[in-house]
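Worked Example 4.2. Consider the chain below.
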Amino acid sequence: MKNVLLVIAAFLISTASFAQSPFKLSREAEERCTQITREMAQELRLNELGYIKLKELNRERMLTTQNILSNYSNDAHLLEQKLEEAAQAYDQQVTAFLNPNQLQAYANFKSQPTPKVRFVAVGSEE
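Applying the procedure from the previous section yields the following structure tokens:
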């Protein structure tokens, strides 16, 4: 019975990984995503499942940010609005799986005067 459940779980995980967005991050952006996720996971004291969820959210946010920057670069006001919307959606998704102690750590992390985390996946940004 355990073997059947393990096979089903492995199948579901592999299916989900193949069903991801066709848009991929560059190698450098993927490394930056990993670095950001590690820093945040350490600060928030996440377990392995939390790390995996956070990394996927960070990857999605980097792709979204990259897409917004390329599509709205001609309109600064709309660009700022779309980036703010993406940030709010990201915050909602992250806070959905954090416990109360992690929520407080996340609030402290976000309120630091110099942002440790940058989600721009464009090479010329850094």
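The two ends are 51 Å apart (CA to CA). The longest helix spans residues 48-71. Compare this with Example 4.1 before moving on.
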